[in-house]
Recover the amino acids of this structure.
């Protein structure tokens, strides 16, 4: 049986959730059955990760939706590579891919929805609906992402397949030696409760709510030990908060880290105050490290936490409720331990990376070989 030629096409390759999913999927697909490469409209650090893993990467440098030359180049590459199946990730990649795949006569096209987009973007769902014939299947990273997209696009249920994000839980197991080393380096005694935020520094992630909650607690005489890892448009806001804010005196910003396992080992709880999510991969990694999670009560995070057994759910955009939840967990070590254990069990049982890869391999094989 010949290998299926797969192209993963994504908007950009900065180190965020969808890009990391493309990285894991591309490097873990069975090389005996799948010949995979990655293309991106714009580059980023993940291009280097993929190259290190032996995955061929092409950065197209398409800078706008009207870049006709870039679209033609993409169509030419797809035709030259004789791609059997084009798998797109994120809206702008999908926007370019559907006409390019048609020009290149690519037999199969699949698109993954990674988030439940909270901004007003009706044209995205209209585009999905009016070009539905070009896309055989829409993969969603959670049931809530599927329901959200289907409601707004008006597409029938058979168009969708849910493939949960997955992770290697064993790789995120708490390392006590790393915990001791990092906490010693940061002068944090065993009596100090360290809160962690890992993720993109962007409006949708609710970082402003976390900083507001931290200030609220500091004003009440309950200063928070907080470590923030990540990068994005709100980096300056974080740096200013730490430099000048009353609540920032015990906060630490470590920038973007490719490997956050030491941070998770050193922490005692994890915060994800997102305004919207499709899955919540950073929170799942924290759960794998046995950390209780405080998260916004939005569908994706409610599902991820098993309704709240692995952490506390708070009213979205309510920084006071977030502060109260942080204080509650900080004051209750047995509750933190119980929720951390429950969270690790949940990701081990419900979201193994092996299941994610197997589901994609099954989908690809069914689409390509059933059509022959």
């Amino acid at each position: 049986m010949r290998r299926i030629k797969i192209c993963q096409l994504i908007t950009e390759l900065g180190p965020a959730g969808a890009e990391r999913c493309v990285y894991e999927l591309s490097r873990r697909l069975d090389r005996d059955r799948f010949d995979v490469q990655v293309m991106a409209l714009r580059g980023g650090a993940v291009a280097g990760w993929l190259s290190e893993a032996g995955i061929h990467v092409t950065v197209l440098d398409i800078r706008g939706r009207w870049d006709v030359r870039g679209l033609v180049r993409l169509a030419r590459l797809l035709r030259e590579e004789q791609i059997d199946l084009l798998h797109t990730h994120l809206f702008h990649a999908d926007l370019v891919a559907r006409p390019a795949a048609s020009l290149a006569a690519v037999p199969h096209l699949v698109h993954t929805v990674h988030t439940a987009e909270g901004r007003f973007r009706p044209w995205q769902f209209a585009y999905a609906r009016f070009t539905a014939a070009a896309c055989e299947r829409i993969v969603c990273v959670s049931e809530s992402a599927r329901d959200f997209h289907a409601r707004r696009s008006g597409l029938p249920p058979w168009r969708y397949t849910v493939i949960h994000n997955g992770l290697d839980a064993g790789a995120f197991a708490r390392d006590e030696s790393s915990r001791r080393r990092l906490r010693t380096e940061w002068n944090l005694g065993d009596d100090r409760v360290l809160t962690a935020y890992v993720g993109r520094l962007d409006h949708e992630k609710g970082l402003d709510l976390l900083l507001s909650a931290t200030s609220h607690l500091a004003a009440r005489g309950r200063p928070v030990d907080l470590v923030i890892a990540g990068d994005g448009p709100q980096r300056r806001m974080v740096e200013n908060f730490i430099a000048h804010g009353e609540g920032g005196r015990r906060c630490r910003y470590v920038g973007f880290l490719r490997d956050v396992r030491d941070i998770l080992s050193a922490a005692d709880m994890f915060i994800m105050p997102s305004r919207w999510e499709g899955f919540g991969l950073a929170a799942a990694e924290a759960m794998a490290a046995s950390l209780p999670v405080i998260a916004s009560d939005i569908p994706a995070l409610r599902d991820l936490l098993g309704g709240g057994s692995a952490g506390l759910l708070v009213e979205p955009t309510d920084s006071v409720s977030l502060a109260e939840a942080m204080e509650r967990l900080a004051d209750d070590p047995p509750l933190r331990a119980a929720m951390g254990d429950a969270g690790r069990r949940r990701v081990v049982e419900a979201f193994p990376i092996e299941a994610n890869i197997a589901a994609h391999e099954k989908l690809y094989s069914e689409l390509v070989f059933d059509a022959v």
